[in-house]
Amino acid sequence: MRHFRETILVAAAALALTAVGCAKKKVAVAPPPPPPPSSEAPAPSRPAAAQVERAVSTPAPVAETRRPSYPNAETRARIDQLLARIEDAYFDYDKHTLRPDAIRALEADSTELRDILKDYPTYRLTIEGHCDERGSAEYNMALGEARAEAAKSYLVQVGIPGDQLHVVSYGKEKPVCTESDENCWQKNRRSHIVAMAQR
Q: How does residue 108 score in pLDDT terms, banded at 50, 70 and 90?
């Protein structure tokens, strides 16, 4: 009988140990499958969309500043000084070819004038052509234009842009001297450069 009781106790203890061991053991549960990938990207929130739109529509700042196309008052005063120093170019009777003294007159300060004008493409000069009183008005208008063109050609060779030089002929209409002698006539056969009236 005693042996029977020991056998039952051993069996009960084994059963209890098995139950305890089974209680501690957890059954592995598979995690739920991830949601299927969506083909549509999530819509950005309003503030983010506004920032992107602002970034696209705002132009990048320009690195270099543009120079003005028209000179300021100080530069215009310097141009006027140069024009006052450039003497009129004088011509022989009934000629429009530049003489050596006319070339020297046009050459004075023309390099500095060229450098200034290149920086201000909308600024223009007028080259006037003049004649003495002899000859018809029509003939002197044509001769005055030829003289102004001769002066312009020289200045273009020096490097002044041709589109900044306007030519006009006054023929015998604007003499600087009114005596009827060769000395006076020579003063009237000339080309003269002035700043063009700006619009």
A: confident
